[in-house]
Amino acid sequence: MHCIVPPYMLRVLALRGDPRTAEMARSLLKQTEKLRDDRAELTRAGLPPDKPLSGAFASTAVSPAEGLCCPDRRIHDGQFRAALPGKLVRSEGDGPTGIADADTAYDAAGQVFSLFAEEYGRNSLDGEGMPLVATVHHRRDYNNAFWNGTQMAYGTGDGKVFRTFLELSVIGHEMAHGVIQHSGGLIYENQSGALNESIADVFGSLSLQRALGQEVHQADWLVGRGILGPGINGAALRSMKAPGTAYSDNMLGQDPQPWHMDHFVTTTDDNGGVHINSGIPNHAFYLFCAYLGGRAWELPGRIWYRALQTLNNPMASFSDWADQTMDSAFELAGRGSIETVMLRRAWKLVGIAI
């Protein structure tokens, strides 16, 4: 299972929070471990698919553009219970429900579907029209959102540490985990796990930028802007533009993300620091986009998407991924192009030479 709130943040809350907050954090940590074990069993722990992949970018997860049509959104109300998916409240084509969270989840799922379909030729998360199942109001005061291998689920937050999880970069992030899963997968530990998190951040951010019509220098490059509680000193969960600066709070501590390999964090926590070290490839993507300007979801997004479809290495390191993005840039922009020069420079500036 892939949660938007990292375990290290929950551990800090368990240590520094008041009794109620600390108990909430401990409970979330236990739930997260159980859900991750369940998801690992469901998805065969990130092993490659049994059948060879084919299609536009060598993946069954990519369908020809002419096969694309419409999303199949199925939004459920969890009614603050643990069972998934809950009560179906809005299906594809239905009008607004009047349940604000359900309608937000419906609209956002459509925007993420549109990014992958219209920009990258992908038909839903699995490339073959998979229904987009989501649950809002998951558990009471639940401080997390996740992809469990088959659907998205969003808590409401407790109003203190988190105020919502229905923010487009978060929703795009969780749905992107589904895309990664159905594109061969990246094992969720160490550098491959950090790449899994980073790629989800990239497409979460691109979903938001595209919906807002923002060019590179207009975007804030924050993941989860506005979801932290009113008393928390921070802007978001993560910053791709300036990793390590998203929050600095007496209770949450300091955002621990590095931006350069010199500061790579070696740890056994957080599956080997998957939410921490993802700051390094995140920053490389931001730098590449900043060099090029324009719309990040166009050429930069296509390069990242093509690299994901052709990687075929579930245990990829940062260097493996950087090499794959270069290969994709050669294909899409041409060897020796200014775009490939800028991509190589972006990776070099975060300490990865290719």
Describe this structure in words.
The model is unreliable at 43-65 (pLDDT under 50). A hairpin with a 3-residue loop joins strand 9 and strand 10 (253-254). This protein is an alpha+beta fold and 354 residues long. The strands form three sheets. A six-stranded mixed beta sheet has the order 1-5-6-4-2-3, covered by helices on one side. It has ten helices and ten strands. The longest helix has 24 residues, at 19-42. The protein folds into two domains: 2-181, Roll (Elastase, domain 1), CATH 3.10.170.10; 190-349, Orthogonal Bundle (Neutral Protease, domain 2), CATH 1.10.390.
List the helices and strands and how they pair.
Layout lengths: L1 E2 L3 H10 L2 H24 L30 E5 L9 E5 L8 H21 L11 E5 L8 E3 L4 E3 L13 H14 L8 H23 L9 E2 L14 E2 L8 E2 L3 E2 L15 H4 L5 H14 L6 H12 L7 H16 L4 H12 L5
Parallel strand pairs: 2-4, 4-6
Antiparallel strand pairs: 1-5, 2-3, 5-6, 7-8, 9-10
